[in-house]
Amino acid sequence: MSENLSLKAFVVLLKANKTLAELIKKDISSHGMRTSDFTVLEALYHKGQQTIKQITQSVLINTGSITYVIDKLEKKGLLERTPCKDDRRVVYIQLTDQGIKLMEEIFPLHQQVIENVFEGVTNEEKKIVIDVLKRVGKKSEQLK
């Protein structure tokens, strides 16, 4: 029986994803945060002011949960809501000074964890991984 490389690639991808998710969860929790909180703060830190819809699409958290996460982070003083002047239905979310300061402290540490994971992987190999995973993701979307 010949080796099924598609199946093997699938299993390796799932195992790597599980291990990476556990590592990232541990790293984020070491900063006293939940993954959902961190991903919202990180999106705002790197992309600036966003609507709730934009954040939801960016961080892959469902709409019902995102409001709860934003409410919690707002109560902690890490982000704030600003109504859109042109459309009352739209509310912008942005980091407060306290939120920016927190992300400036913890994001470089988080990034170093990720850099450590990819130690020994060349930039060319990283580009190949990115390309392959994008194609697999797009194909999976088509098959839904």
From TrEMBL:
The keyword Isomerase does not apply. Keywords: DNA-binding, Transcription, Transcription regulation. Residues 6-138 form the HTH marR-type domain. SMART domains: HTH_MARR (SM00347). This is Transcriptional regulator.
